[in-house]
Design a protein that fits this description.
52% of the residues lie in helices and 19% in strands. The chain contains 16 helices and 17 strands. The strands form four sheets. A five-stranded antiparallel β-sheet has the order 2-1-5-4-3, with helices on both faces. Strands 7-6-10-9-8 form a five-stranded antiparallel β-sheet, sandwiched between helices. The chain has a five-stranded mixed β-sheet with strand order 12-14-15-17-16. A hairpin with a 4-residue loop joins strand 1 and strand 2. Helix 1 runs antiparallel to helix 6, helix 11 packs antiparallel against helix 12 and helix 13 packs parallel to helix 14.
C-alpha cells in the first residue's frame, strides 16, 4: 500500500479538485444561467410586444376583432400563432379589455400601476408571483394612436419555469458531458501519472538496493522533463556513491590489515562500551575466559582494563599502566576517540608485550648489581690488605708475601671480569675477527681435559670422554674460540656439579655437521630459566653471585653466532644439564678460499 501512496494521493487530489470544479461550475451555472435565460426570454418578448402594439391599436380603435388578436398569441405553440405567450390588453385606465387566459385578472396584479408607468416609458419588465403557476415574467408596452396618445397597454407574460426550460435542457447536456468527460480525464490522468510514477518507482527500487550495497544499478534517463533530470542526477549519485564506498572499503580493509598485522594488541570500543574491534595480536596476548557472563571480560579478563576504558571515556585523558598476564608483562595505553566536533565517541587501547624489555631491564639492573659486587669484592680485599702494608703493621715477610699473593689473585680476578666485558662487547659489535681454519678436535679435547683434571679432582668431580674424538674428521672453525667455548662450558659445569658428580664430553660426526656435547650431573636448570640462559648478564643462581659474572654463556652464544654455528641447552632439575654445539667439517673448497 505504501508503494502506491503517491499515486493514491494524486488520484484523490485530482478527484477532489475535479469534484470541486464541477460543483463550482454548477453553482455558477445555476447562479448566472437564470438571469441569462430570463433576459433572453424578455429580450425575445419585448420586440414582439412592440410589433403587436400596432395591431392592438387597431383593436382598441375597433378596426380589428379580438379573434384576430387571440390568434396571434398561443401558449400551445400552434402554427398560426406568432407569439408563444399569454396576452393581456388594458385601456388607458388599467382595465383589462382582452386576455388570452381567463385567469389573467387573478394572475396580473397591480397592472394599473404598470399602466401608469408605461405612460412615461416605452416598456416595463418585471417578475411577480402568480399563485399556483409560480412566478411569471411580464413584459409590458404602451399602446398609442398615430397622434401619440396612449390608448392602453399590452402585456405579454410567461411562467418563469417556461423561461428556464432551456436552462434545464442545457443543464442535462452539461451533466451528460461531464459524465462522458470524467472517465476520459481520469484515463488520460492515469496514463500521465503512470509515465511519471513508473520511473519514480524504479528509482525507489534502485535506492533500496543501493541501501544494500549495490551501486552498479542505473535508472532510465530517457524520460523527458524534470523526471529525466532527476534520473540523471540519481545515476550520477549512484556512481559517486560507488566510488566513495569503494574508496572507504579499500581504506577500511587497509586499516584492518594494518591493525591485524600489528604485533601490538588493539581493542576499540564505542561510546556505549561495546567492543567494536580486536586484532589477532590481542587474542594471543590474553587467554579467553569463556566462563564470564560479561562479553568484554571474555576477551580481556582484567577488570582494571575496562575500568581504565570507562575512566578515559569520562575524563578524555590517556590512561597508561602495566599488568601481568601469567608470565607476561603487558603495557597498556588507552586513548579516547573523538568526533569532528570534539565529542568522545569511543576509546582505543594498545596492548604491548614488554616481557622481554622488562626481563632485559631486570637483568641489566641485576647485572649492574652483580658487576658492582664482583668489582667491589676484590677491591675491598685489596684495600684491606694494602692499608696495613702501607701503615707498616705487617712486618713478617711470609705474611707480606701471602698478602701480595692475595692482592695479585684479586687483581687478576678483576682483570678477567673486565676482559670478559670487553670481549663480549667486541663480539656484539662485530669488531672481533674469528678467522676459521682446519684443526683436529681430538688433540684439543685432550688438552682441555688435561687442563681441567686438577680442578675437577680438587672438587671430587669426574671429567671423562665418552667418544673417540681422534676419529672425528678435520673441522673448519676458529680453534681458539672452540677451545674457549669448551672451557666456558666445562667451567660452568664445574661450578654447578656437586662433589661425586661427573662431567662428560661426547660428540657425533655422522651428519652434515659435527655435534659436541658437554653434560654434567649437577643440580640442573628449571625450564623457566632455559630461554634466558644465553642472555647477557643472566645468572640462574642469584644467591651465589660469586660463582660467575653471568657473561660466559653470553660470550659462548655470541662466538657461535659469529662463526655461523649453533649452541643449545637441555636440562632437567635434579639430573643435570647438557650443552650442545655444532661445527662444520673441513672441505677442499675451504682450503682454496684460504
Amino acid at each position: 500500500m505504501r508503494r502506491h501512496s503517491l499515486l493514491s494521493r494524486v488520484y484523490i487530489s485530482v478527484f477532489i479538485s475535479f469534484v470541486l470544479m464541477v460543483l463550482l461550475i454548477w453553482m455558477l451555472f445555476v447562479q448566472l444561467s437564470g438571469n441569462v435565460f430570463l433576459n433572453m426570454r424578455t429580450a425575445e418578448l419585448k420586440p414582439r410586444a412592440q410589433s403587436l402594439a400596432d395591431i392592438v391599436t387597431d383593436y382598441l380603435e375597433g378596426r380589428v376583432t379580438e379573434d384576430l388578436i387571440l390568434s396571434l398569441v398561443d401558449t400551445n405553440e400552434n402554427e398560426s400563432s406568432v407569439i408563444n405567450a399569454y396576452l393581456v390588453i388594458t385601456d388607458d385606465a388599467g382595465n383589462i379589455r382582452l386576455s388570452s387566459d381567463e385567469t389573467a385578472s387573478n394572475v396580473l396584479l397591480g397592472v394599473k400601476e404598470y399602466v401608469s408607468a408605461l405612460s412615461r416609458v416605452d416598456s416595463v419588465v418585471y417578475v411577480q408571483s402568480a399563485g399556483l403557476i409560480g412566478e411569471i415574467v411580464v413584459v409590458g408596452v404602451p399602446v398609442k394612436n398615430d397622434a401619440g396618445e396612449m390608448l392602453g397597454s399590452l402585456f405579454l407574460y410567461v411562467p418563469q419555469y417556461e423561461a428556464f426550460a432551456a436552462r434545464g435542457a442545457l443543464a442535462g447536456s452539461l451533466v451528460i458531458a461531464m459524465l462522458i468527460i470524467t472517465p476520459i480525464v481520469f484515463l488520460l490522468l492515469s496514463a500521465l501519472l503512470y509515465r511519471i510514477i513508473r520511473p519514480i518507482r524504479r528509482m525507489n527500487e534502485v535506492a533500496l538496493q543501493m541501501a544494500d550495497g549495490r551501486f552498479d544499478l542505473q535508472v532510465n534517463e530517457e524520460t523527458f522533463g524534470e523526471i529525466g533530470q532527476l534520473a540523471q542526477s540519481f545515476n550520477r549519485l549512484s556512481k559517486t556513491l560507488k566510488k566513495t564506498f569503494s574508496a572507504l572499503t579499500f581504506e577500511r580493509n587497509r586499516l584492518v590489515q594494518i591493525l591485524n598485522g600489528m604485533t601490538e594488541g588493539i581493542a576499540a570500543i564505542d561510546k556505549e562500551g561495546n567492543i567494536t574491534h580486536i586484532n589477532p595480536a590481542l587474542e594471543k596476548l590474553f587467554k579467553k575466559n569463556a566462563s564470564s557472563n560479561d562479553p568484554r571480560m571474555r576477551v580481556i579478563g582484567h577488570k582494571e582494563v575496562w575500568e581504565a576504558f570507562e575512566k578515559t571515556m569520562q575524563t578524555g585523558e590517556i590512561s597508561t599502566f602495566e599488568l601481568t598476564e601469567y608470565t607476561s608483562v603487558i603495557h597498556v595505553s588507552i586513548a579516547p576517540v573523538r568526533s569532528d566536533k570534539g565529542e568522545i565517541e569511543g576509546a582505543v587501547g594498545v596492548f604491548m608485550d614488554v616481557s622481554k624489555e622488562a626481563m632485559l631491564e631486570k637483568t641489566r639492573r641485576e647485572y649492574v648489581a652483580n658487576v658492582s659486587h664482583e668489582m667491589r669484592s676484590p677491591l675491598t680485599a685489596v684495600r684491606g690488605l694494602i692499608e696495613p702494608l702501607r701503615d707498616g703493621m705487617v712486618t713478617n715477610e711470609d705474611t707480606k708475601k701471602r698478602y701480595y699473593d692475595i692482592i695479585l689473585r684479586e687483581v687478576l680476578r678483576l682483570s678477567r671480569l673486565i676482559s670478559d666485558l670487553m670481549e663480549l662487547s667486541r663480539l656484539q659489535s662485530g669488531n672481533l675477527a674469528l678467522e676459521p681454519e682446519k684443526f683436529e678436535i681430538g688433540e684439543m679435547i685432550e688438552d682441555v681435559i688435561e687442563k681441567y683434571i686438577p680442578i675437577c679432582q680438587e672438587k671430587s668431580i669426574g671429567l671423562v670422554s665418552e667418544s673417540e674424538f681422534s676419529m672425528c674428521p678435520p673441522l673448519y672453525a676458529n680453534p681458539d674460540r672452540i677451545e674457549q667455548l669448551l672451557g666456558i662450558l666445562i667451567d660452568n659445569a664445574v661450578k654447578y656439579t656437586p662433589a661425586g658428580g661427573r662431567i662428560i664430553l661426547s660428540g657425533e660426526w655422522t651428519g652434515e655437521r659435527a655435534t659436541f656435547s658437554v653434560s654434567d650431573t649437577g643440580s640442573g636448570i628449571s625450564k623457566e630459566h632455559l630461554p634466558h640462559l644465553f642472555e647477557r648478564f643472566y645468572k640462574v643462581d642469584k644467591a651465589h653471585s660469586g660463582m660467575g659474572s653471568g657473561l660466559g654463556l653470553s660470550i659462548a652464544k655470541e662466538m657461535m653466532d659469529v662463526m655461523g654455528e649453533s649452541i643449545s641447552v637441555e636440562s632437567e632439575e635434579g639430573k643435570g644439564t647438557t650443552f650442545t654445539f655444532t661445527c662444520r667439517f673441513f672441505e677442499e673448497s675451504n682450503a682454496i678460499i684460504e
